[in-house]
Amino acid sequence: MMRGWVSITVAAMVASVAGLGALGCESTTRTGTRITLNAGRASEVFFPGDVRTVHAAAEAAVGELGFTLGRSQADVTEGIVRATTAGGDPVAVFVDRDDERYVKATVLIGLPGLGDEARQRLVLEAMEASLAGER
After folding, report:
1. Which end of the chain is more exposed for a tag (fewer CB within 10 A), N or C?
2. Does pTM surpass 0.90?
3. What is the pLDDT of the chain when averaged over all its residues?
C-alpha cells in the first residue's frame, strides 16, 4: 500500500512542478520583443547586435535592479553574468551568438526548473532598454 501512495505522491509533485508554467510558452516585453520560457523555466530573448554589447546590457540590467554582481565575462561568441538578488537567489544571464545579426540572451533567476519568470522579465526589459539607449 505504501508503494502505491509514494507513486501517486511523486506523480502529483511532478504534475505540480510541470503546472507552474507551460514549457515553450511565449510572452512579450513592453515593446513587443518575444520572450520564450524554456524547459528549465529560464526566459530567452533574441536581441539584434553582438555578444559584447548584449553582455554589457546584461551587466547594466543586473546593476540597475540592485542585484549583487558576481562573475562576468564575455568574448565574441558567448558571455555570462552571474549575480545574486537581495534575497539571495542566484541570477544567471547567458549570452550566445545565434548568427551574425542576433544574440540569444537567457535569464534564470532561482533554481533550474523553478525560474522566477516575473523577475526574469524585468532583467530582459532592462536589457532591452539599455540596448535601445533609454538608460
Report:
1. N
2. no
3. 82
